[in-house]
Each structure stands twice: as C-alpha cells, then as structure tokens.
Please model this.
Amino acid sequence: MKTKFILLAGLIFTVHHLFAQNVRFTNSGVIEFEKSINQHATIKKAIARSGGMMGSSFDDFKKSAPQFKLLKSTLRFSGNKTLFAPVVETDDNRGMFGGSPESEQSNITYTDLSTNTFITEKKFFEETFLVKDSPRKINWKLTSEMRDIAGYECRRANAIIMDSVYVVAFYTDKIPVSGGPESFTGLPGMILGVALPHDNITWFAKTVTDRPIPVTEIKPPTKGKPMDNKSLLETISKVLNRWGSEASRMIKLLLI
Model:
C-alpha cells in the first residue's frame, strides 16, 4: 500500500512538473487592443441627461451608423516598461458626437513601473498636454471569475476610480508585467481587458505577440505643455465649467 502511494505521488509530481515546463511566460512583446464604444447607448444617455426628446435625427443616426465604433491601439512592453499608443484611423468616422473623449482615442501613455513613472501625451480639443506623474493607484478587488482573452486565461478584478467610475478588468499572470491599456495598472499581471460598463466603453486585447522589444520602441512621449494630474484637472475644469452637469462626466473620461 505504501509503495503504491509513493508511485502515485511520484506520477502526480512528474505530470505537474511537465505541465509547468510547458507554461510560457511572456516578458516582452506587443498587444493589439480594440476599443469599442457603444455609440447608440452613449448618445441615448446624453439626450436623456439634457432633457431632450428622441428625435428623428437620432433615429436616422442609428440607421446610418454602426452601433459600435471600433478603435485600434497597441501596447508594447518589455520588463517593467510599457508604451500604449493609438493606431491612426484611416477614415474620419467621427459619428454624431465626434471630438468627445468617448468617441476618440488619442492618448500616448508611457509607464515605467520600476521607477513609478507615468507620462502621457493627452489631446484636449486643440490643446496637447504632456502629463508627468506617478501611475494611478487603484484599489482592485479580485474575483473568482475567469475569461479567455487572446488565448490567455484571465481573472476578473473590479474597482472604482475617480470616486464614481466603475471599472471591470481582466488580467493574466502569464504576462508578469503589472501594466495595461491607457492608465490601467496595478494588478498581478498584464491587463488584457477593461470595461467601463456605465460609460459603454471597453478595451480588449485581440492578439498578443511574444517577441523582444528594442528600447527604441518604448520611449516616453515628448510633445505638449508639461503638467501633472492636478494641474491638468484644474486646466480642463476651467474650460468645461460652462458645460454644467455634463462637465463632471467629461472630465472623468478625459482623465482616464
């Protein structure tokens, strides 16, 4: 009986060891993300907030424009450094609310987790700002929910940022870099999916390419008026002050 137990334990250890050897951890590469904006839902909410009626123009828009606007971006990563950048759109499909934060994707974001450095080139109407600060601290709550994204098994985490923005993220520990799209970081692995359910916006990885990344491919942006997050908030708050109740929501989307 004792001999059988030892043999069984040895077999289990061998299978586990072989499986562990086949697990591939990616330390550098390129992730292609797709940002999806539910245009129909966003515009419907905007009309409701303004107290307006659902007119024929909105009905015409729903018939002529796709429900979801899709935007491409890439995240290059190597070690503890990441660079998130949009892929330039080939057509000018701005939709009914072109120019607003939810309809575009213009941030170029560099993060160095080893030095706690966060630099983003952020466009705001006709202005460009170069924001230098530390990465946003997010109080993530891990869950047991799992989801496959771009071939990686990912765990769900939830959080509230900027007091009221509900965030759902999915990360994989098979990419041991605590990064993610836009300003989302702080999980024990790479974030491959982000959803803002109340704002009808998502970012999900479509492909992950495992390859060495030269240092020339991960450089911080340099264009724009230098400032930190506090100065940026003060600046855009003054500009959007006349927007009334809509200003608060717009500011939060701009700061993501």
